[in-house]
Amino acid sequence: MTAELRFPPRFRWGTATSAYQVEGATRADGRGESVWDRFCRVPGAIENGDTGDDACDHYARAGEDVALMASLGLTAYRLSLAWPRLFPAGDGRIEPRGLAHYDRLIDRLLAHGITPLVTLYHWDLPQALQDRGGWRDRATARRFADYAAACFDAFGDRVRDWVTVNEPWIVGVLGHQLGLHAPGERDLAGSVRAMHHLLLGHGLAASALRATGRPGARAGVAYSLYPHTPAGDTAADRAAAHASDGYVNRWFLDPVHGRGYPADMREHWERAVGPLDFVADGDERAIAAGSDFIGVNYYTRRIVAAGRGDGPWPWRVERGRPGVPRTDLNWEIVPDDLTALLLRLHRAHPGVPLLVTENGAAFDDAPGPDGGVRDARRVAFLHGHLAAVHRAIAAGAPVEGYYHWSFLDNFEWAMGYRPRFGLVHVDRDTRRRTVKESGRWYGAVARAGAIPARPPGGAG
Ligand code: FCB
């Protein structure tokens, strides 16, 4: 028997998707408009003029997709609820057909032995709330908590783990600062307000979950975490990397886990946009109301040097190093940094369970003449990152599960359908699903609860 690396018995072997990226059916069953429906209509906003109107048609094919997941041997699934399906106007009237859809989906998952991890906000804000100020408006945090409470009420008997907010940094930077994601704002001061209100929304939602009194219910944020590498071995580059880490990582982790906003980054922000007067007394306490796990979305590292880059910050982000393997999006593949990241989180927030809520790679492999999709690079990527998780667990990090991004090739935001992240290939015209070699490999790993000690394809 070949040597293997065994994972803990209840380790969750999952995949992740989000509603807007896979569902399609954006006008079905009373769904309201989201900021992404609107943003996709802006000329030039999305590559190739793509939209999520049809996406993977997962709304109609959810049954088939769940059965496929189960047939591979997967035991967990991270999905998101579309807020505008449940509250077409953002608040007020709840849409029963939206509720019925997710009811069925959750029941199907459970019937197949797949544990759901449900994200409440994966970027598809109801447009009606954007029209009232969106995340820059404090009231959105309260409305989010009300929406969250309705979801806990509807699904909390079957769903135990909730990701409140997905990647508040990305929403702030790409959505509100650079205008590359919905709602397409370019407003530096507005972006820091939006990020604050996202965190406040998380805290209020986490409190609402506590208030349900459901035993074992847990809430956490899925952060876009980028380990930082100083460009050179100098004090200036190390300081720059630490500062940028404040911008990307600590600004979110610290307040959610009870430390308040980090002072160094607060100074950077105040220099850039003036006093953060929208942080009211008691907000930091509300944000820290109770996070039960840390959701780690990890894709690549950030190499940072001292100096001035594009933004108002005293650091510069470098493009990566020669010789480091990359995905088709040119992202460096650095599994060792995932180990280091998980151990850092474990040290900084001892006792808090960790979930790898996203990790994956864009590789554009198409079906071959026999119809099969041989994506050996994704298999190697998976092996490398799962081995990295295994090392972190062996060193004591409480990692409970791994959710590969993504189950299906899907709508990748401003890049449209070009990047293919799926374990399952989706034909753009027919939406036909073809399990890739990586999907079969990952399914076999999930069944075995172990990965081979040696990287796959070593001999060839
Ligand atoms: C993350 C997003 C996810 C997906 C991956 C590639 O930032 O959370 O929706 O787009 O990147």
Describe the overall structure.
- By secondary structure, the protein is α/β, with parallel strands linked by helices.
- It has a single domain (4-452), classed as Glycosidases (TIM Barrel).
- The protein contains 15 helices and 15 strands.
- α8 (168-177) packs antiparallel against α9 (188-212) and α14 runs parallel beside α15 (437-448).
- The protein is globular and about 60 Å long.
- The structure holds beta-D-fucopyranose (FCB).
- Beta-D-fucopyranose binds at residues 18, 21, 166-167, 170, 224, 297, 358, 405, 412-413, 421.
Short overview:
By secondary structure, the protein is α/β, with parallel strands linked by helices. The chain has 15 helices and 15 strands.
Task: Write a concise keyword list for the protein shown above.
globular; binds beta-D-fucopyranose; three-stranded mixed beta sheet; 15 strands; TIM Barrel
